[in-house]
Amino acid sequence: MSERIAEVSRDTLETQIRVRINLDGQGKGQFDTGLPFLDHMLDQVARHGVVDLEIVAKGDLHIDAHHTVEDIGITLGQAMARALGDKKGIRRYGHAYVPLDEALSRVVVDFSGRPGLEYHVDYPRARIGDFDVDLFGEFFQGFVNHAAVTLHIDNLRGRNAHHVAETIFKAFGRALRMAAEPDPRMQGTTPSTKGSL
Predict the structure, then answer these.
(1) Exposure check for the chain: N or C terminus, fewer CB within 10 A?
(2) What EC number(s) would the UniProt record show?
(3) Would you kindly state where each structural domain of the chain is located, as residue ranges?
């Protein structure tokens, strides 16, 4: 399997974003988005997905964080799709349950080539510090649309909003890791009876 590394830039009137991902990395992350709590969540994806991930973003945060968060999701999705290439030899499906104290979340992913998001999360409060938790849904929708994956995210329980978010992002990283992992029994084979994804 060739190197699974991609770098993608997105420049609009609202945001300038650069994402670099190495799917076969060591879990190293570098983040500068202007949104410290989002940086913390992205670090969970890198660490628990065991991918090397660099994200630099400048956005119109003087308005709000919506454009920046959504566009980071879009650009990460594009980088993921590019790094995976034709998807031959991968496991395709991944899932993870992750607890953190009282919180528990489940994430299931399919590198199906069909964008679809089922996002079922009720945060116990609207903000974590200065971060609007509604924007996590926008992040995942942007990712799904541009990575062309089916993604199910369910928070099963949790009273602490920080814990809820952290379990989701850790589970997201672990599910991506499982789905993108090379399957030694599927070398050179597309994991679909259609012959393509």
Answers:
(1) N
(2) 4.2.1.19
(3) 5-186
